[in-house]
Amino acid sequence: MLRVLFSLGLIALFIYIGVGLLLYVTQRSFIYFPQAAPNAQAYDSVMLEVPDATLQLSVSLNQRQQAMIYFGGNAEQVALNLPAFSAAFPAHDLYFVHYRGYGQSSGQPTQAALLKDALAVFDHVQQQSYRHITVVGRSLGSGVATYLASERPVSELSLVTPYNSLLELAQQHYPIYPIKWLLKDKYESWRYAERVTTPVNMVIATNDRIIPRSSSLALRNHFPPSQVTWHELANTGHNDISHHPDYYASLIRLPGKLAPVSQTTPVTPDSDSIHDNSP
User: Fold this and answer.
1) What tens digit of pLDDT does each residue of 136-151 get?
2) Which fold has domain 31-251?
3) pTM
């Protein structure tokens, strides 16, 4: 009997170690889902050279006085959202970032690369002498945007379905593994939030099954209370929050920058609309 129990325990141990090794080796395939570029003729692009990659920025530029930089979800084709954002924010030039490996951007996505690229994108946009630069981060991109706002003088930070830490979310999904030691890309937004001094808008989906409200609340607690405007959009989920009529208005606090969006404004697929796998 003891021999049988020992054998079963040994098998369970091998399975545990094997699955753990598989998770470690393939972990970034659970975080990043690169999307191919849409029809190149349908959207304007700027190709930004960074030290070890070339980044595609889908843009809407008309020498406006304000700019908006957008970091999307882990499975988002950001260019598809340009028409709706252009209609909502006619006073903004728009820069929608394709992460490494997404669209026509070269390289492979990692946390270190995405954070470094965010700084390069902001520095490029800042050189255009805009009066205000608003940064929007959705889902995975909320961690990138929070880091950027902690390092650069953004005018306003808007976080859509944000998380406190990807590490915490991963530990909830895999409680039997020491995720703290296994996860390479932890995206600990709370570490950066404490250094952010700009106004912050947090936009939450009440029916979000990917990023729980508790994670967004934990992140909010790392900002000074007077700094944050909290929006909960009723009856929305992680993937369809942008369909809510108040979505675009919730992204902007600074006055005089939002145009009314008609009911006929086309709505395009947004963050993680293909994969519900991670923030």
Assistant:
1) 999 999 999 999 999 9
2) Rossmann fold (3.40.50)
3) 0.89
